[in-house]
């Protein structure tokens, strides 16, 4: 199909398609004459995936490029894809607090991870985010909110197993890799959205 | 204390403190002479809260201003605070899909909410995010990932009750309101961080 048809089928305007192409998010189409390039269904799907990452997941173009490079890598794996996708969706943690405060927060996170029997390491993109959150709660003397982290952790553990189970049922390697990307990029957004609905309900009931 | 001492105690540079003041995030100090303004412990705490919202929660200055206006409102309530904080942390959903696709996704979200016995309405900031996520999964033919939403919803429901319970134990009204702000702004980040750690663990074990 020509670029106009690609735009029509995906709802992505032609100039935006050209921009994604230049930025390396969309593989080039096949040049069929000096003035014409042909696209196929793989380009339709890729454009949908790009929109999901940018518009729904809120990723930057650079972060989406990193994720897609791994999707297209001949040496990709589900576990490696997870690491790349996690890094892409994680905001860099701002260094704060004294060395002593940081060490204390690091120790709290290490203890929490151990308590839940997890083998993850401080290099995990979530780890430093969590240290920063613990530091913030401690800085504001809100140890009461820290006690909730164990409940979040138990829920996260159960959900991770469910997510992995869903992935195991996907027959194709492409489908598994895309599932990791979508689960990581949209999974956070889905969980946050559902938390807002559940919180409104719980708060409304408590108010009576 | 003077502004230099306020900067030292909070780690926020003087020009940044002045900027937050101009933007209406930090209440003015008390003018004690034509050239001097005195700040107190309430300014220290407010600055810590501002940093938590901007640096850890990733809120814009405008969104943080909305949240703090409600914190300082004489007519504030815990339930109202929750609504304002939820709106502040929610990215606006981009309209997409045909009317038919949108109606179908709206219906799926309504059914999910009903299934979990929730009373929340489509005005909830999470609702439209969820419609967009359902649309995206459908657009990509990933109904398999949609089945995970019920598991996320069950976890979100349990966590909302735990969060409300933690809030009930906070004695002061100020503490409750600040707890809602922190729980909303940092709660998403904490859950996402823990999901990354749990996912790495589950994926690593599956790989063997």
UniProtKB/TrEMBL annotation, chains A, B:
Keywords: DNA-binding. SMART domains: HTH_MERR. Pfam families: MerR_1. The keyword Repeat does not apply. PROSITE patterns: HTH_MERR_2 (PS50937). The keyword Transport does not apply. Residues 1-70 form the HTH merR-type domain. InterPro entries: DNA-bd_dom_put_sf, MerR-type_HTH_dom, MerR_fam. Gene3D superfamilies: 1.10.1660.10. It comes from the Bacteria. Coiled coil: none annotated. GO terms for molecular function: DNA binding; DNA-binding transcription factor activity. SUPFAM superfamilies: Putative DNA-binding domain. PANTHER family: HTH-TYPE TRANSCRIPTIONAL REGULATOR ADHR, REDOX-CYCLING DRUG-SENSING TRANSCRIPTIONAL ACTIVATOR SOXR. This is MerR family transcriptional regulator. It comes from Streptomyces antnestii. The lineage of its organism: Bacteria, Bacillati, Actinomycetota, Actinomycetes, Kitasatosporales.
């Amino acid at each position: 199909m020509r670029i106009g048809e690609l735009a029509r089928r995906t709802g992505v305007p032609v100039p935006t398609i050209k921009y994604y192409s230049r930025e390396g998010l969309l593989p080039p189409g096949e040049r069929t004459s000096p003035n014409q390039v042909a696209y196929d269904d793989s380009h339709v799907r890729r454009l949908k995936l790009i929109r999901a990452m940018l518009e729904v997941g809120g990723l930057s173009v650079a972060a989406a490029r990193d994720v897609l490079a791994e999707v297209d890598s001949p040496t990709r794996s589900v576990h490696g894809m997870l690491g790349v996708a996690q890094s892409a969706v994680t905001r860099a943690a701002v260094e704060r607090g004294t060395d002593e405060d940081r060490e204390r927060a690091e120790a709290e996170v290490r203890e929490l991870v151990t308590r839940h029997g997890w083998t993850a390491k401080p290099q995990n993109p979530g780890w430093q985010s969590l240290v920063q959150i613990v530091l913030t709660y401690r800085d504001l003397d809100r140890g009461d909110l820290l006690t909730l982290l164990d409940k979040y952790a138990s829920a996260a553990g159960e959900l991770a197993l469910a997510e992995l189970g869903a992935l195991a049922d996907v027959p194709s390697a492409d489908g598994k890799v895309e599932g990791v990307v979508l689960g990581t990029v949209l999974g956070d957004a889905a969980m946050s959205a559902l938390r807002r609905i559940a919180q409104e309900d719980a708060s409304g009931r408590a108010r009576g």
